[in-house]
Amino acid sequence: MAETATTNKRQSMGGAPAPKVPVATPNIGGPAMASLETALAQAVGATIRVQTTLPNQSTIEGLVHSVSQPLSLLGLTTSSNPPAYHLLSISSIMSFNLLSLGPSSSGSAPLPPLDMPALNARLSSTLARLKAEESRRGPKGTSREAQDIFDALARTLPTEWRGSSIIVMERVEIKAPYSVGECELVREAGKESGSAHTLDRVKKVLENERRKLAERTNSNTKTAIPAAMPLNGPRKGG
User: Fold this and answer.
1) Average per-residue pLDDT in the chain?
2) Which of 49, 100, 118, 159 could make a disulfide contact with 154, Cβ separation 3.0–4.6 Å?
3) For position 187, what pLDDT does the model report?
4) Is the preceding peptide bond at 26 cis, omega within 30 degrees of 0?
5) Helix, strand, coil content of the chain in percent (nearest 5)
6) How far is the CA of 231 from the CAs of 217, 226, 234, 235, 236, in angstroms?
7) Which residues are 96's β-sheet partners?
8) Is the dihedral of CA 214, 217, 223, 227 positive or negative?
9) What 3-state DSSP class applies to 10?
10) How high is the pLDDT of residue 232?
11) DSSP 8-state assignment for residue 101
């Protein structure tokens, strides 16, 4: 790896463009994540092309100005005027290509100054978004149906996980298997914290969302491609 980087640098100083070196990361997490963070940390000052998966797959080209391994964040500066700064979660990076090496100590143009207030604001916003996304995920072992029900309720009502139960509006608890019959008012100090009206409202919303999820599932089942029929048709007789 060190020999390749040295060769690229010599080619760049001689006028030839540095080759694109893909860094594939098919399995994010564990050793693969640590390897990606290390590779990006070594690319500080270089220009790279990044392919991301979150929130939508996209490609970003820019100058690597910082890598935070404790926070697992990558800072990129694009070449727009004025420069645009991007903070990317390293876990959302699918791969990156090295487009050009960073400036050497022989008098190349210095890195542009960083707008630290803007970067700190972007960092706070990114961390808050990631924390909110994490809080919406059910505990380990949560089924796809349970997560779909939670997501549907959370679109219209304040909803959170409390253990394996779904808490709505801080007043109604929905226990597994998350049907209307499993709704009950949250009890605090031995007393119910909500009203019958609140309970009825949550039950109606839950019933409606379960109905829509069932209709969507049935629709997907009906539009599934049927098994292929033999070319000579169904077999007749015994």
Assistant:
1) 76
2) 159
3) 81
4) no
5) 35, 25, 40
6) 31, 14, 9, 11, 14
7) 23, 50
8) negative
9) helix
10) 55
11) P
